[in-house]
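User: Write out your own:

AI:
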Amino acid sequence: MTYKLVLLALSLCLFNCKEEAKTETKVVDFDYKFPSVQKLVDCEGVDHALFQEAMQSFEEDIANFYTPEQPVMSRAYSLFVSQAISNKVDYSAMVSDHSKTVLEALKQDKMLWKTNPDGSKVNFNHPIFDCIGNQIKDEPLRKTFKALIDTNSMSLRMFSGQLRRQTFGMKDDKYLATFVALELFYGKFYDTDLSADVSKKTNTPIENEHSENDGHNH
């Protein structure tokens, strides 16, 4: 009898372990909204298709929010970056359902996330940031970015000044756009329940959030 009980206990334990493993490895399934033959973000060793989807979904959201009548990406970036750095973005009004789903897919990459002392949620030791640092188009910005990544010193406090001055070029630099998307968009609503604020969804961004250091986007 004791032997049978031991076998039963072992069987239950193995079953539970398998079920937990299934839960932990459950893959978020979603339809890619921006399938493209062209690789806008091509980084070795990472899911470039997912990061590209994340960047494009982010761009669509900020364009719809800041320039709803006619998309103007340079202006959308200028307003978004300025407000995001100042913690004035209403993510509950901006974030689309697709971007929420993309975030859940991004969360499956456990190495991508960690809570930093300044509140940032992204892990800058992830290979995507090394790739971004090698591909940013603007040379001074690229050098600063790489230096901060290589010395494990990346933070908005150290980088926001230069970032503000490059908003005009973000629409054409998809690697820099991917950094902005991860740090200032997905990372900002990473652990926020946006469903509670669904009634607030209106396109009412603050229009005059420019400083003298912002990119020239007008």
About this structure: Residues 3-26, 198-204, 206-213 have pLDDT under 50 and may be disordered. DSSP finds nine helices and no strands in the chain.
